[in-house]
Structure formats: structure tokens, C-alpha cells
Amino acid sequence: MTNAEDAVDALVVGARPAGSATAIALARAGKRVVVLDRSRFPSDTLSTHLLWPGGLAELRALGALDRVEALGAPRLPIGMAVGDGITLRGSYSTVDGVGYGMCVRRTGLDAALVRTAREAGAQVREGCRVTGLVVRSGRVTGVRFTGRDGTEEELRAPLVVGADGRRSTVARLVGVERPYRREPSGRACFFGYWTDPHPPWREIAAQWRAGAELGTAFPCDGGLVLCLLQPPQDRAADFRQDTEAEYLRTIKAMPGLAERLRGGELVGGIRSATGIESYFRRSSGPGWALPGDAGHFKDPVTAQGIRDALRYGRLLGEMAAPVLHTDRLDAALLDWERRREAECLEVYQWTNGLARGERMTPLEIELYRSARQRDRLTTLMLDVYSRSRRPGEVATPRRGLALATAALARPAADRRTVLAALSRDLRTMVSDALERRAVRRRPLPPTPGLEGPRAP
């Protein structure tokens, strides 16, 4: 074991988007940063990896956008959504000069971020597995890990960052693995890559909804297109019997998506994620913090994970750097955690609604009809995904009432169904607003006490 007094300014566990973003910000502030990751890059990971303009703006802020664009994924300036036979096409408002999305496979994206972190001055050690935390007087003061040659090592730092994903080792070791806010998804995920024989579609990020089914096609690097299906969770059993056959059958049952992929070939196998749960965990404490999925996760249906990992990793580094060796560090970490919760809670609530795994309601259908006639409304809807607009700017009580009125005026309208949808939407708006107000007023749940050293 190396000298226990070996010390740096910050230790980051995990080198993917959240960890690299944190390390870049700290290193650019002149701090000595060591990043540990069990993978060796380039390395893939389970992810749907679509970035809206807001996510690409975060890559630009980190100095990684040019490197990521060089991977060859096409720019996606057009967003398209099809529901109940109604097609919406629109463009995004620019975010820090970026007005397009991109779908970049994680093998290249994560390696590009690791290279950017190294260029900023961070030391990234690959093939390292964290086995425990060093704790003194209730504070996390370092980590113990096994290096790529199998030797046990220990490093000390005033800040340990757990950027190690949903199954975070750091979250488990500090005792916050159980979320304080959680919501099971009503959808499962199954995705694969296809060759893409349709050049005109390579600038469009597209989504189709048919009944309770949801499917997407996002052009990505390597001349491929990512096709993600999110069927209702109760259909996961159908996929388990013969995953590829059910995946292909589901695509065939969505004519628009089937036409988009016509002439392409499925490359490799189908990847899946079932039993998905969105959550907030306590994400800061004495000497530690959890950016990325380690601390907060949203269902993939709105594709927010990478953007938030980049943004709040960067902000964590920027807020912690000036106070790393002072008694103000813990307060800065708590401020960072509160900021993320305040900025992400409404999007978390909106995402949970889209992840119910249900058919479109009459009000959603009317929203599509209205947006088809108004380009500005389509852009507003796309900007919610990009995070330049709030969900509440689309889902207002006034708009809900207007949509219900239009739906009731349809000749074949089911009055009971329309009013039930309006009632649920209004109740959800009120309960979500009350939750956000309560969050602003009440403290976060306490973090558990630590006595160390901590080991698995």
C-alpha cells in the first residue's frame, strides 16, 4: 500500500460525464485532481446518449464540443414528434450559440471527455476499483482502491466525489444509497443500432407514439441510427421471451418508425433496461458529493441525464474549488446540492409524467394539433427538452382548459375521458407546485453519521 499521507486536492470516483466535468472544472482552477475509474477508455456503457442543444452547450463550456463533433455524429437541427397521426417538426432556440442536438455513442463521447480532463491537468487512472473510504472524525478524507496492477493504494483529499453511476459505490459507503425521493417508471427501454440508408433523415431526431408504445430514431456517429423503444413496463415480459423478435415486431407495429428504418440492418444485439426508477439521493456531506446518476436520475424518456451530469459536475467543481481547504467546503457542497434539486425538480416531475407508459390523453392530442398550426409552440415544446424553457411554460392551467375545450368540441369526443384527463393534469400541476414550494422551505433529509475507515 502506498503512503497513507499521499494527498491531492480532490478525488473523483468515475471518469464518465459527471466525473470528467467535475475534474475539468477543478483542474482549470489549479487544483490537483485524481480521477479513478474501473474502465479503460474507450469504453461503452448502457445509455441512450441523445444530447439536446442544452447538453451540447455544456460540452462547449467544458471545452470538449469540438472534440466530440470530430467523432462524426451528425448535427440534428430538427426535432420531430408524431402522435395520433399528427406530425410536428420544428427547430430549437439556441443555447449559448448551439441550436442543434447530437446523438453520440458513449464509447467516443466518454473517451473525448477523459482526454479533455487530462488536457486540463487532471490525472485519470484507468482500471482502478474503489474498495473503501477513509473517514476521520465523521469526515470522508480519502479512498482506498485497487490499481490496475492489483496493488492496494490509498489517497487522501479534502473532497471525494462519487461520480460512479446509479449503482454508486460511494453512495453505498456513505450510507445514502436509498433515495429520499423516488418514482418507478411505467416504461422499459430496449434499444439497438441500425445502418442508416436515408441521408435526408440524418438531421432529424424523431419520436413516434402509437397507443401506449413509444419509439425513437436518432442518427448517430458511425453512419448508424439509434432506435430506442420504450414500451409500457408490463410488456417487458414479452421482450424477455425473445428480445429481438419482440423488438422487431414492435417497430413493425409503428408504421412511421418502420418506414424510417426501412432498408437498414440491425447491427449487434438489443440492449435493455427494465425496472427503471427515477430518484434523488442525498448528494453531499462532510467531505463528499455525488454528481450525475450517483445522486440524481431521471427516466430516459426525456434524455436529460448526460446534460445534467455535465452541468452539475462542472458546477460542483466550480463551487468547491475556492473553498477546498477551508471550513466552508461543506456549506458550498450543500449549496450545490440544493441548487441541483431546485433546478431539476420540475423537469423530474415532468419526466415522470411522460414515463407513465400510457396512451396519449385527449389533451396531449389537442396540444399536438395546436402546435402543428403554430411553429412557436413546437419550438417551445422542444426547448423544454433542451432546458431553455420550463415545463410549466407549456403546461399552464389556461392552456389545459383551452385544450380541454377544443377536445370537447370534437364530434366524437368522450366527455368523461376528456374531463378525467383535465382533472388529473390540474391535480398534478397543484401537487407538483406544492412539492417544489416545500423543497424551497424545508431542509434536506439528514446524512448518516460516518465512522471510519469505511469498507464494503
Automatic annotation (TrEMBL):
<dbReference type="Pfam" id="PF01494">
    <property type="entry name" value="FAD_binding_3"/>
</dbReference>
<dbReference type="GO" id="GO:0071949">
    <property type="term" value="F:FAD binding"/>
</dbReference>
<dbReference type="InterPro" id="IPR036188">
    <property type="entry name" value="FAD/NAD-bd_sf"/>
</dbReference>
<dbReference type="InterPro" id="IPR050407">
    <property type="entry name" value="Geranylgeranyl_reductase"/>
</dbReference>
<dbReference type="InterPro" id="IPR002938">
    <property type="entry name" value="FAD-bd"/>
</dbReference>
<feature type="domain" description="FAD-binding">
    <location>
        <begin position="8"/>
        <end position="343"/>
    </location>
</feature>
<feature type="region of interest" description="Disordered">
    <location>
        <begin position="437"/>
        <end position="456"/>
    </location>
</feature>
<protein>
    <submittedName>
        <fullName>NAD(P)/FAD-dependent oxidoreductase</fullName>
    </submittedName>
</protein>
